[in-house]
Amino acid sequence: MEIVEVGPRDGLQNEKRVLSTETKIEYVNRALAAGLRRLEVAAFARPDRVPQMADAEDVLRGVPRPVGVRYIALVLNGRGLDRILALDPAARPHEINYVVVATDEFARRNQGMDTMTSLEGFREVAAKANNNGLGVTLTVAAAFGCPFTGEVKADRVRAIIADAGPLDELCLADTIGVGVPAQVIDLAAAAREAAPGVPLRAHFHNTRNTGYANAITAATLGFVALDASLGGIGGCPFAPAATGNIATEDLAYLLNRSGLETGVAVTLAAETGTWIGAELVLPQVPAQLGRAGDFPALA
């Protein structure tokens, strides 16, 4: 079972403290040492709006490039993709992640346009990215609920996916941490109806302590990848008191012990989760493994 490490992007982007490029690269190196092989490491967004990601190009130039490792960058529009394509090919990410928000109100506040206008932009960017050898993931954000308009119906998500065009991968995101396993089941069915055969990925937050239940549900339904962040850092500025992404070390423990091997060494992952929390000057990271330890305990 693949875990996509999103801490270097979604985790750091939502923390107040801005880390140096060197610290971000060390974060990636530590994640690789823990066995993670697919990582979202940068966002090509406006530096004045997202100062945590202002050094996206430098991070991509500086991270190691071992065989079998794939890097992802978030883009929100064609300008972001143009910045990627301006990089030397050896410094580009292997994939892009493009976010379309499921509700018009959230989309307008987050991206300045309604959902279907954002989807038009996705189709253009996806075609250009594919033509330049980049993989493309469409993330449908707030697919499980919206902080401004409430419930999001599976039919709404189905309609968005059906209008998206060809997809390499589809990610269903519980951006504010309101989802429950029954919704995972419903949305998986909707996604497979709208985009048969497209690999499914999920992005869960643990705001209401349902993130891990949702994750194991997705795993049993055949999702090919799950997002998580080391330490469980991150969160969503639109979710009051949000506790962040589900934690990589806790998720890896859950999956490994359930017979779904992740390749992640949970002890090393937990050490990195504790380390990044200290770098961010957090009193404590949300992840549990750094405190409880692996089981059975290593000698």
Key traits:
alpha/beta, TIM Barrel, 12 helices, 8 strands, 40% helix, metal-binding, lyase, metal ion binding, Aldolase_TIM
Show the helix and strand layout:
Layout: E1 2-5, H1 7-13, H2 21-33, E2 38-44, H3 56-62, E3 70-75, H4 78-85, E4 95-101, H5 104-111, H6 115-131, E5 135-141, H7 154-162, E6 169-174, H8 181-194, E7 200-204, H9 211-220, E8 225-228, H10 248-257, H11 266-279, H12 289-292
Parallel strand pairs: 1-8, 2-3, 3-4, 4-5, 5-6, 6-7, 7-8
Detailed description of the structure:
InterPro entries: Aldolase_TIM (IPR013785), HMGL (IPR043594), PYR_CT (IPR000891). It holds the Pfam family HMGL-like. Keywords: Lyase, Metal-binding. An 8-stranded parallel β-sheet has the order 1-8-7-6-5-4-3-2, with helices on both faces. It is globular, with a radius of gyration of 18 Å. The longest helix is centred in the middle third of the chain and has 17 residues. Helix 3 links the parallel strand 2 and strand 3. The chain has 299 residues and is of the alpha/beta class. The chain is built from 12 helices and 8 strands. It has one domain: TIM Barrel, CATH 3.20.20. The chain is 40% helix and 15% strand.
How would you summarize this macromolecular structure in one to three sentences?
This protein is α/β, with parallel strands linked by helices and 299 residues long.
Helix content: 40-55%
- Supply the number of helical segments: 12
Q: CATH superfamily, called what?
A: Aldolase class I
SSE pattern, N- to C-terminal = EHHEHEHEHHEHEHEHEHHH
Residue fraction in strands: 15-25%
Question: CA-to-CA gap between the ends?
Answer: 26 Å
Biggest β-sheet description: 8 strands, parallel
Compute the number of structural domains: 1
How would you sum up the global shape?
A: globular
